[in-house]
């Protein structure tokens, strides 16, 4: 086994006393964990069947903390099988919840048959269906924090990882920023295929919220292209066996060469992180077990401990955290489902915000439409612009987050408001 940290300061961060995060996230401070099952979204698979998307949420029993980090986990199974109740993800979720995290093990859409993974187009669509579902799971917690606040989480501390296919889901979700990152030439029309599925964000649920994560990890995971990972991207933890042929340690075709999409495993991701000087942690093993802990209780414990150290080292409550000051977040890269242009083509002024019953919308045009959209993506009111200063009523609408969408024949602009 070889364990690699980017810098020796990564080890120093683990020496901070547990009080830096109020005694949480480093050791087991809870004995029991509660598990609840909820539906976080739904979407259709490749043959048009609607799949209800479920997650198991693990919370420390008796916890009174109200600003907890979240760890999302996705199971393995080569995008053909597996479940949110697979023993390895249940183990990781339970162990992290004992340290004070809120954890969620998700189900996501799978291939309808093994034949989906023979052609490049259907393989890409299967993987991005899963990524869209993962984004909906991230948005579920962002939406909860902004509205009902059932789970008492910190929406700026959401981490996503998984095993094998789950690690591929989480890592590509984290590092693919825009559809233009993807290949679109020759027979590899990834951008076209993803557009056919509803774009990078997809339509699996909880629209209008940022789907960025604050860190990612993969047990035998990988990314389609390490160039997806930018200098200001978030940290990563990986665990991989050098002889793995299901997801190759460096780059190659998965499933013993039978899947027609190149994938770069943890060895190449580790090299990329070293070159970018981004904090990361990596456990490397000889042999070919997939994932490395599959036949070893000792490696499973080692990976669990490594993941706990990695996560603690990037928590906001840890004053020695190893995040970059320029690290991407939901402000710099919102990735919301309701598209908000970086510029403001209407020179719109929308106030007050938060709002009670009535908004004022000032524009540089009187030829547009103003719509109010709720967090489910539903249009709840629409009116034509009558003048350069417009009054928009929100009276009678439930309290919460809305988007004001201004649309002309040429361009659309959206702006988030809160009714309270």
What are the key terms here?
single chain; alpha+beta; Rossmann fold; Immunoglobulin-like; 9-stranded mixed beta sheet; 8 helices; 21 strands
CATH class descriptor of the largest domain: Alpha Beta
Taken from the alpha-carbon principal axes, the silhouette is globular
- Secondary-structure element pattern, one letter each: EHEEEHEHEHEEHEEEEHEHEHEEEEEEE
The CATH topology of the largest domain turns out to be Rossmann fold
| Percent helix | 10-25%
* Number of H/I helices: 8
Question: How large a portion of the residues is in β-strands, by DSSP E?
Answer: 25-35%
Task: Profile the largest sheet.
Answer: 9 strands, mixed
CATH architecture of the largest domain: 3-Layer(aba) Sandwich
The CATH homologous superfamily of the largest domain corresponds to Alpha/Beta hydrolase fold, catalytic domain
Task: Explain what this protein looks like in three dimensions.
The protein is of the alpha+beta class and 420 residues long. The chain has 2 domains: 2-312, Alpha/Beta hydrolase fold, catalytic domain (Rossmann fold, 3-Layer(aba) Sandwich), CATH 3.40.50; 349-419, Immunoglobulin-like. The protein has 8 helices and 21 strands. The strands form 5 sheets. A 9-stranded mixed beta sheet has the order 1-14-11-9-6-4-5-3-2, with helices on both faces. Strands 18-17-20-21 form a 4-stranded antiparallel beta sheet, with no helix packed on it. β17 and β18 form a beta hairpin. α3 packs across α4 (165-175). The radius of gyration is 22 Å and the shape is globular. Residues 7-19 and 336-342 have low confidence and may be disordered.
């Amino acid at each position: 086994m070889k364990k690699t940290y980017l810098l020796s300061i990564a080890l120093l961060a683990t020496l901070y006393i547990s009080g830096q995060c109020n005694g949480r996230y480093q050791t087991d401070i809870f004995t029991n964990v509660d598990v609840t099952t909820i539906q976080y979204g739904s979407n259709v698979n490749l043959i048009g069947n609607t799949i209800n998307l479920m997650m198991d949420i693990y919370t420390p029993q008796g916890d009174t903390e109200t600003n907890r980090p979240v760890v999302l986990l996705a199971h393995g199974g080569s995008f053909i099988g597996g479940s949110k109740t697979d023993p390895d993800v249940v183990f990781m979720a339970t162990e992290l919840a004992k340290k004070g995290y809120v954890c969620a093990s998700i189900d996501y859409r799978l291939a309808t048959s093994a034949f989906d993974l023979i052609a490049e187009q259907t393989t890409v669509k299967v993987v991005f269906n899963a990524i869209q579902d993962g984004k909906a799971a991230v948005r579920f917690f962002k939406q909860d924090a902004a509205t009902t606040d059932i789970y008492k989480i910190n929406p700026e501390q959401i981490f996503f990882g998984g095993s094998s296919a789950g690690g591929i889901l989480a890592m590509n979700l984290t590092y693919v920023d825009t559809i233009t990152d993807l290949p679109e030439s020759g027979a590899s029309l990834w951008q076209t295929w993803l557009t056919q599925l509803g774009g990078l964000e997809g339509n699996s649920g909880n629209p209008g919220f940022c789907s960025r994560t604050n860190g990612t990890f993969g047990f035998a995971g990988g990314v389609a292209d390490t160039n997806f990972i930018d200098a200001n991207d978030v940290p990563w933890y990986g665990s991989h066996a050098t002889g793995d042929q299901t997801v190759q340690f460096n780059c190659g075709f998965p499933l013993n060469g039978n899947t027609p999409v190149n994938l770069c495993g943890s060895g190449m991701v580790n090299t990329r992180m070293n070159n970018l000087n981004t904090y990361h942690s990596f456990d490397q093993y000889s042999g070919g077990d997939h994932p490395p802990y599959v036949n070893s209780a000792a490696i499973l414990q080692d990976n669990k401990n490594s993941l706990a150290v990695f996560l603690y080292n990037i928590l906001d409550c840890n004053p020695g955290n190893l995040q970059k000051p320029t690290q991407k977040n939901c402000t710099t890269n919102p990735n919301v489902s309701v598209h908000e242009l970086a510029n403001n083509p209407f020179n719109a002024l929308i106030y007050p915000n938060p709002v009670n019953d009535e908004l004022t919308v000032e524009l540089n045009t009187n030829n547009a439409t103003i719509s109010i959209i709720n967090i489910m993506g539903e249009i709840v009111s629409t009116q034509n612009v009558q003048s350069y200063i417009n009054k928009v009523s929100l009276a009678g609408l439930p309290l919460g987050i809305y988007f004001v969408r201004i649309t002309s024949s040429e361009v659309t602009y959206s702006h988030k408001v809160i009714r309270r």
